[in-house]
Specification:
single chain, about 475 residues, alpha/beta, ten-stranded mixed sheet, 18 strands, globular, disordered N terminus
């Protein structure tokens, strides 16, 4: 398939972007970066390209109409678009874009009820990018498309809401930041837990010293399971899908319904349904509550397929240890427990109730020298306990999805940096990538350079910091 060159459009300006790199930088300059070249002593270029503000030329009145499009019309993306149309003032969804014709019908019919007209259905996202009326896009494709679609959107002058996991590898996260800075585009990550007040009050409680010195953190992402996997056979692609475009950056392979519908269990397309799909929320929330620490100095991941030794790529359980020097963070992920559960929606919507922490599959444990804190994602709130199991401090929460979407719409108008910005999104997702790389190279401890974002002790692991891109779908050094 012939592909035209990436867009090189100048974007309108922005104001109020105030984000620091928060990682050490040097005067090093190089046309490449550590992940692209394999070098260990090159500061990633995005560090020196982060802007403390965008120009103010693009700011708009709160009443100005915002035109959006959805790229990737599965259930999650469809709900994003419908929520934006329902919640946002003077917001319209103009396009539903998906390479799979069987998806998007529900969103289109519901959006017609909400906004009084039906969006246009298209297969090719380039049609969306060519439309100058479109202000921003929701990207909810399979994971391997997230970075490329986001970068193309920035090049076309569109603001971006990109679902988690935001990137397929470390290099992509770096390049997404560079595109956001170069074209002065908003990139809001689908890490909604940066929005609720209780996340910041938990952070402030720890910063006050009342929890004491934090020395250990445990993050859970334990979904219901175990879940068997029965791969399908290779067949011809149905007429209802553009399979070549669905594959995008990944290598060309025959159509397989398992790759299509269960893509998250293949390394080529995802980072695992529990590790990438679920843990990315908790890790990002944990980093926020810990006042956004930098990168760890080493990582070690062990795991395997303990319940079903089938043909999926990803394990059904992983245990990862990140060494930050002054504290240790561990991450449990998997689909192997029938007795663990995510926080029920009734609690996420309550201003008085907390999760049942003992069997909560998505809780964060923070161990301080004076007490321990439980934190729940997506409205779970937080509680602090002393040695007698007495509650000494707490705050409930509400599901932050709606405020997170409204934050994105507001940032399109004001050009302010969103709470779930791409810089912190990259830092959180980098932990997921490191965990999976450690597992994939044989459960090895990897020594990591926070300064250069490089793996220092394993060539095979270093090679996984970046993927090989299929011709026509590349993400290069220059975005």
């Amino acid at each position: 398939m012939k592909r035209r060159k990436f867009f090189k459009l100048a974007s309108t300006g922005a104001a109020g972007l105030a984000v620091g790199a928060s990682c050490k930088t040097t005067d090093h300059e190089s046309p490449g970066n550590a992940s692209g070249s394999g070098a260990f002593n090159v500061v990633p270029p995005y560090r020196n390209e982060i802007k403390t503000s965008f120009s103010s030329a693009g700011s708009r009145a709160p009443s100005d109409r915002v035109i959006l499009a959805l790229i990737g019309a599965g259930g999650y993306g469809s709900r994003l678009s419908m929520s934006a149309a329902r919640l946002g003032e003077n917001v319209q969804i103009k396009y539903i874009c998906d390479v799979d014709d069987t998806r998007g019908g529900w969103a289109m019919s519901e959006l017609e009820k909400i906004q009084g007209f039906m969006p246009k259905k298209v297969r090719d996202m380039r049609i969306v990018f060519d439309d100058k009326e479109v202000d921003g896009v929701f990207i909810a494709t399979p994971e391997h498309w997230h970075a490329l679609a986001a970068i193309r959107a920035c090049q076309a002058g569109k603001d971006v809401y990109v679902e988690k996991p935001i990137s397929h590898n470390i290099f992509e996260g770096q390049q997404m930041i560079r595109a956001a800075m170069k074209y002065e585009r908003i990139i809001q990550c689908g890490t909604q837990n940066r929005n609720p007040d209780y996340a910041y009050s938990a952070r402030d409680y720890i910063k006050s010293g009342k929890l004491g010195e934090v020395f250990a953190v445990n993050v859970r992402a334990l979904d219901d399971g175990p879940v068997p996997f029965n791969p399908g056979e290779d067949t011809g692609a149905p007429d209802t899908i553009d399979w070549d475009m669905w594959l995008g950056p990944a290598r060309k392979v025959p159509y397989n319904v398992s790759r299509h519908r269960s893509w998250s269990v293949y390394w080529e397309y995802g980072s695992g349904p529990s590790t990438g799909g679920c843990a990315s929320h908790q890790l990002d929330l944990a980093r926020l509550v810990l006042d956004d620490p930098g990168f760890p100095k080493s990582v070690y991941c062990a795991g395997g397929r303990y319940f079903f030794d089938d043909n999926r790529d990803v394990p059904d359980y992983q245990m990862t240890t990140f060494d930050y020097g002054n504290f240790v963070l561990t991450l449990q992920t998997g689909r192997c427990t029938t007795y663990m559960q995510k926080t029920p929606q009734i609690i996420r919507s309550s201003t008085t109730e907390f999760p049942m922490w003992m069997q909560n599959g998505t809780r964060i444990d923070i161990y301080g020298s004076k007490g321990m804190m439980y934190v729940g994602r997506m409205g779970g709130g937080w509680q602090v306990f002393d040695k007698d199991e007495e509650i000494v401090a707490q705050q409930t929460g509400i599901d932050p999805m709606d405020p997170h979407i409204l934050d994105f719409i507001d940032c399109i108008r004001t050009r302010k940096q969103p709470k779930g910005n791409i810089i912190e999104g990259h830092k959180s997702m980098l932990l997921i990538h490191l965990a999976n790389i450690s597992y994939r190279v044989g459960n090895k401890q990897l020594i990591f350079s926070p300064e250069y974002e490089s793996i220092l002790n394993d060539e095979a692991a270093t090679a996984m910091i970046r993927r090989e891109y299929r011709q026509g779908y590349e993400i290069g050094e220059n975005v």
